[in-house]
């Protein structure tokens, strides 16, 4: 057992997808990236729906694509399962018959279908037809159907995106449980999905892998603006210097730790919760202070997240989390002039991805 290996190049129009990813046996990998970065195209290649110009796709000891050796296993022979945004169940079959369908047509044992339904918490739905299922229930049945085919690799394409906020967490829990020790690739926009389910994260930008590593590590030390945004962190790009980071316009962001090398491209990363907000300039403080204008205020859990714009371009998009009480006391609203302050000890300076897309 070697896990998933996907190393290929595919060009469509003026878009070029270049991927090199490997996972350990039974690992779940989450793929994140901005719109148009190549996530769906990657799934299509893994599923065998598109053929790369060059490269290899293999799961464990099974080669699915090898352009040099002329190997292209067709989609229905790959043993690759798919759970899409919509459940896409056969409308005229019961939930149980939907789950039995795959093994039946393959001439395999279909008597385990009830157990799969039970595994995803849908045993009591066995006799229902899809139109009598909620979105979350239909996704459970679709998951049972995908698992019943015993795939070597399961692809999940935004499986929670079409569910309401109550159904998504329950299904997320089910997916985490059934994917234990099963190779899977999860495309998602939600870092919570990645944290809850994935062992590793790959971030695509413009057809290239810009970040890759263990989930918590990637999300806590983002190297690109996109990853920082999905991880809910503030990020300023520049060049590492002995005291922290120097922006392109010469501002110093004092920071500590984070292993960036002086003179190399770097990013300063901090948490919105560590940013204090003032309406008057503060003097004599050892903290980093950025002058900014409030552009948006939105509830974020039990705090209010404010977004700001600069001044300098690197200030734009920074966020600070305030309690409702603090917002009321400061009397700020969109358009207000504020000063953001963050202590150097709260700022980590990490090596950046050169030419990172955001
Ligand atoms: N059949 C096609 N022919 C030519 N270009 C295509 C084709 N399909 C997709 N593209 C282009 O390839 C790029 C990657 O598309 P892809 O759908 O893989 O991105 P994505 O990351 O899944 O985006 P989203 O998050 O919006 O779903 C885009 O620039 C898209 O316009």
UniProtKB/TrEMBL annotation:
Alphabetized SUPFAM superfamilies for the sequence: MOP-like, P-loop containing nucleoside triphosphate hydrolases
Biological process annotations from GO: molybdate ion transport
Keywords: ATP-binding, Cell membrane, Membrane, Molybdenum, Nucleotide-binding, Translocase, Transport
Keyword check for ATP-binding: yes
GO molecular function per UniProt: ATP binding; ATP hydrolysis activity
Domain Mop: 283-351
InterPro entries linked: AAA+_ATPase, ABC_transporter-like_ATP-bd, ABC_transporter-like_CS, Mo/tungstate-bd_C_term_dom, Molybdenum_import_ModC, Mop_domain, P-loop_NTPase, Transp-assoc_OB_typ1
Domain ABC transporter as annotated: residue spans: 1-231
Family matches, as Pfam families: ABC_tran, TOBE
Listed PANTHER family: ABC TRANSPORTER I FAMILY MEMBER 10 (PTHR43514), SULFATE_THIOSULFATE IMPORT ATP-BINDING PROTEIN CYSA (PTHR43514:SF1)
Name under which the protein is recorded: Molybdate transport system ATP-binding protein
Source organism per UniProt: Actinokineospora alba
């Amino acid at each position: 057992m070697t896990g998933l290996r996907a190393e290929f190049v595919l060009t469509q129009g003026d878009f070029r997808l270049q991927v090199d990813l490997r996972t350990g046996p039974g690992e779940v990998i989450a793929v994140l990236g901005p719109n148009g970065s190549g996530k769906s195209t990657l799934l299509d290649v893994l599923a065998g729906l598109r053929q790369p110009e060059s490269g290899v796709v293999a799961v464990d000891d099974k080669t699915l694509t090898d352009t040099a050796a002329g190997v292209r296993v067709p989609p229905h022979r790959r043993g690759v399962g798919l759970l899409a945004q919509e459940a896409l169940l056969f409308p005229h079959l019961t939930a149980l018959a939907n789950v039995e369908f795959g093994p039946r047509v393959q001439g395999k044992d279909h008597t385990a279908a009830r157990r799969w339904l039970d595994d995803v918490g849908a045993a009591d739905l066995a006799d229902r037809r899809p139109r009598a299922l909620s979105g979350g229930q239909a996704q459970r049945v679709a998951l049972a159907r995908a698992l019943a085919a015993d795939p070597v690799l399961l692809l999940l394409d935004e499986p929670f995106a079409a569910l309401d906020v109550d159904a998504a967490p329950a299904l997320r829990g089910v997916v985490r449980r059934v994917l234990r020790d099963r190779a899977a690739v999860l495309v998602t926009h939600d870092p919570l999905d990645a944290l809850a389910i994935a062992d590793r994260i790959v971030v695509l930008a413009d057809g290239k892998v810009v970040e890759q590593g263990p989930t918590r590590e990637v999300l806590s030390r983002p190297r690109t603006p996109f990853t920082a945004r999905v991880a809910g962190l503030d990020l300023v790009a520049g060049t590492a210097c002995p005291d922290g980071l120097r922006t392109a316009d010469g501002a110093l962001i004092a920071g500590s730790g984070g292993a960036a090398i002086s003179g190399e491209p770097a990013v300063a990363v901090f948490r919105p919760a560590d940013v204090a907000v003032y309406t008057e300039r503060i003097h004599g403080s050892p903290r980093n202070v950025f002058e900014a204008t409030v552009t948006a205020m939105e509830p974020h859990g039990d705090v209010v997240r404010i977004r700001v714009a600069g001044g300098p371009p690197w200030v734009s998009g920074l966020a600070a989390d305030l309690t409702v009480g603090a917002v009321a006391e400061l009397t700020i609203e969109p358009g207000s002039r504020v000063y953001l302050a963050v202590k150097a000890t709260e700022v980590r300076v990490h090596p950046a991805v050169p030419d990172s897309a955001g």
